[in-house]
Write a structure and sequence with these properties.
73 residues, single chain, 0% strand, mainly alpha
Length: 73
C-alpha cells in the first residue's frame, strides 16, 4: 500500500511542481507572448518525468532520515 501511495503522491506532486516551475521559468525568460504555451510545453514534458523520478527516489530517503532524527509526541 505504501508503494501505491508513493506513486500517486509522486504523480500529483511532480505534475504540480513541473507545471508551476516550468511556467515560471518560461515567463521570466520570454514573458507571456504567443510562444509561451509551446515553450512551456517543451520544458514541462522534460521536467515532469525528471521530477517524478526525483520524488520516487528522494521522498523515502528523506522520510527515513527524518524518522531517525525526529521524535513524535
Amino acid at each position: 500500500m505504501k508503494t501505491k501511495r508513493l506513486i500517486i503522491f509522486a504523480s500529483i506532486m511532480s505534475f504540480c511542481t513541473s507545471t508551476f516551475v516550468s511556467g515560471f521559468i518560461v515567463f521570466l525568460k520570454i514573458g507571456f507572448d504567443h510562444d509561451f504555451m509551446f515553450k512551456w510545453w517543451e520544458r514541462f514534458i522534460i521536467a515532469w518525468p525528471v521530477v517524478f523520478l526525483c520524488i520516487i527516489v528522494f521522498v523515502p530517503l528523506i522520510n527515513k532520515l527524518l524518522d531517525r532524527f525526529m521524535k513524535y509526541d
